[in-house]
């Protein structure tokens, strides 16, 4: 229970469904602020108090579990290291993989609980396997504006079997109405945004404080110096704003970050046409069920609230290869590609490379 409206209604719905529910708030910050800053951040002392108030209204036990050290190691340190290496990570996926559906779920099972329920907007659909038995599948939420299946694409089949998402069949306005009808104080509480451990939303400032300033060159694709930066880690592929180039492009066209080179501390800029890619290689594959066999026709999504693109995907030599039907701009190493079959999540992989391939450099036959 984060202290927000979503987890409050999720807990209430689990009780209504007949489950024996215990509320757990995760203390993830080693120096939680007393009050939140507008709608940014989460897991503050104020949030813990809001969660406890809802638990009291529901008449359920409530605990605060301290996972700050684990969160710092598995999420914050990973985030810092990925940016230092020139990659663009998604900390919400890592938190779901390492904290909410690993550390939290493992502790819950060890204490005798059966499953973890959260306020994520996604659906679990139970189907019958060909050989009998029930299979739990992860699907998109009915509310596309709030769908969080992308950040849950790191769940494997065992974790999915122990997970409940009671809000997936409801829109956010309906959830707020339900919370108000139940008398929850948090019914109108604003959603948290951005990265929870960067409460002011200034990712570049946070990285600079953590990694220190490292001045270097901004160059074009010919190697000509066109600007200076204070740290290559603060840039990501596809970025246009904040480049402060001292030398405009000869043709006057806007320029974007097309590559970050941490080894030389250079940021490379180029025109928009250089951003389009149709081939993605991923590692650290996580399958929400059986891995696809051969070449699978899929939908591929590379951002949390981004568009889904028609593609083909297959596993090869421990990697996941994805070939998009068209070009996609701004795909950066470190992001995750999540694969779908209709509304069902197949799995995910961390992007290690993205490139433009000619049409005849296609997927293997199969």
Automatic annotation (TrEMBL):
One family from Pfam that matches here is tRNA_Me_trans_C
Q: Does the keyword Phosphoprotein apply?
A: no
List residue numbers at the site (Interaction with tRNA).
120, 335
- Source domain of life is Bacteria
tRNA-specific 2-thiouridylase MnmA-like central domain segment(s): 206-270
Q: What does this protein do?
A: Catalyzes the 2-thiolation of uridine at the wobble position (U34) of tRNA, leading to the formation of s(2)U34.
Write out the catalytic residues in the record. 95 (nucleophile), 196 (cysteine persulfide intermediate)
User: What InterPro entries has UniProt attached to this entry?
Assistant: MnmA-like (IPR004506), MnmA-like_C (IPR046885), MnmA-like_central (IPR046884), MnmA-like_central_sf (IPR023382), Rossmann-like_a/b/a_fold (IPR014729)
Q: Where is the tRNA-specific 2-thiouridylase MnmA-like C-terminal domain?
A: 279-351
Catalytic reaction annotation: S-sulfanyl-L-cysteinyl-[protein] + uridine(34) in tRNA + AH2 + ATP = 2-thiouridine(34) in tRNA + L-cysteinyl-[protein] + A + AMP + diphosphate + H(+)
Q: Report the subcellular localization.
A: Cytoplasm
Q: What is this protein called?
A: tRNA-specific 2-thiouridylase MnmA
* Keywords, comma-separated and alphabetical: ATP-binding, Cytoplasm, Disulfide bond, Nucleotide-binding, RNA-binding, Transferase, tRNA processing, tRNA-binding
Question: Where is this protein chiefly located?
Answer: cytoplasm
Family indicated by similarity: Belongs to the MnmA/TRMU family.
Q: Where is this region: Interaction with tRNA?
A: 146-148
Positions of ATP binding? 26, 119
EC number(s) on file: 2.8.1.13
- Please state the gene responsible for encoding this protein: mnmA
């Amino acid at each position: 229970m984060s202290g927000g409206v979503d987890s409050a209604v999720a807990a209430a719905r689990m009780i209504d469904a007949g489950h024996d529910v215990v509320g757990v708030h995760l203390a993830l910050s080693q120096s939680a602020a007393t009050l939140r800053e507008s709608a940014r951040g989460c897991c503050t002392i104020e949030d813990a108090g809001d969660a406890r108030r809802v638990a009291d209204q529901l008449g359920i036990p409530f605990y605060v579990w301290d996972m700050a050290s684990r969160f710092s190691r598995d999420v914050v340190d990973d985030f810092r290291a990925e940016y230092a290496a020139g990659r663009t990570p998604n900390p919400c996926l890592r938190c779901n993989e390492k904290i909410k559906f690993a550390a939290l779920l493992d502790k819950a099972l060890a204490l005798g609980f059966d499953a973890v329920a959260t306020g994520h907007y996604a659906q679990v659909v139970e189907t019958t396997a060909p050989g009998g038995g029930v299979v739990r599948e992860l699907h998109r939420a009915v509310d596309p504006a709030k769908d969080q299946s992308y950040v849950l694409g790191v769940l494997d089949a065992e974790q999915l079997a122990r997970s409940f998402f009671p809000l997936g069949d409801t829109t956010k306005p309906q959830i707020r109405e339900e919370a108000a009808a139940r008398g929850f104080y948090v019914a109108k509480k604003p959603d948290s945004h951005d990265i929870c451990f960067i409460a002011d939303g200034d990712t570049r400032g946070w990285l600079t404080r953590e990694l220190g300033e490292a001045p270097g060159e901004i160059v074009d694709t010919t190697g000509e110096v066109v600007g200076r930066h204070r740290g290559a880690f603060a840039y990501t592929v596809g970025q246009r704003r904040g480049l402060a180039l001292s030398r405009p492009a000869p043709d006057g066209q806007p320029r974007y970050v097309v590559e970050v080179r941490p080894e030389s501390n250079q940021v490379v800029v180029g025109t928009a046409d250089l951003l389009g890619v149709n081939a993605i290689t991923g590692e650290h594959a996580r399958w929400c069920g059986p891995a696809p066999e051969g070449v699978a026709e899929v939908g591929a999504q590379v951002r949390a609230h981004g568009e889904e693109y028609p593609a083909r995907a297959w596993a090869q030599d421990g990697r996941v290869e994805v070939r998009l039907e068209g070009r996609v701009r701004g795909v950066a190493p470190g992001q995750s590609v999540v694969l779908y079959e209709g509304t069902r999540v197949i799995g995910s992989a961390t992007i290690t490379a993205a490139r433009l391939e000619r049409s005849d450099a296609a997927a293997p036959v199969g």
